[in-house]
Amino acid sequence: MAELITKHCTVCGRFRSYQGDDHYCIVCGHETLESECTCGRDFAYALDETGPIHCPRCGKAFHGKSAEYE
Question: Other C-beta atoms within 10 Å of 36: how many?
């Protein structure tokens, strides 16, 4: 079985486990998955969190959906 990594969908805002070569979000279907923050921090910390999420390295906020998805 392939190794799973946490990816973030920039459209719907969800964090989920994916295989490394997955490109499409399983929630909204868009091809907007990113595997790390712009600072380079991976998203493993985000899976078990509830509420607003911020990157523990740079403080970038990951809240809700992008405006185009609402």
Answer: 15
State which amino acid sits at residue 30: H
Q: Per-residue pLDDT averaged across 35-64, rounded?
A: 92
**3 state DSSP class of 46:** helix
Distance from C-alpha of 50 to C-alpha of 18, rounded to nearest angstrom:
19
Instruction: Report the DSSP beta bridge partners of residue 19.
Output: 4
Mean pLDDT of 37-61: 93
Query: pTM for the complete prediction?
Result: 0.85
Between CA 5 and CA 47 the distance in angstroms is 10
Q: Is the pLDDT of residue 65 over 70?
A: no
Contacts of 62 (CB under 8 A, 6+ apart): 8, 13, 15, 46, 52, 53, 54, 55
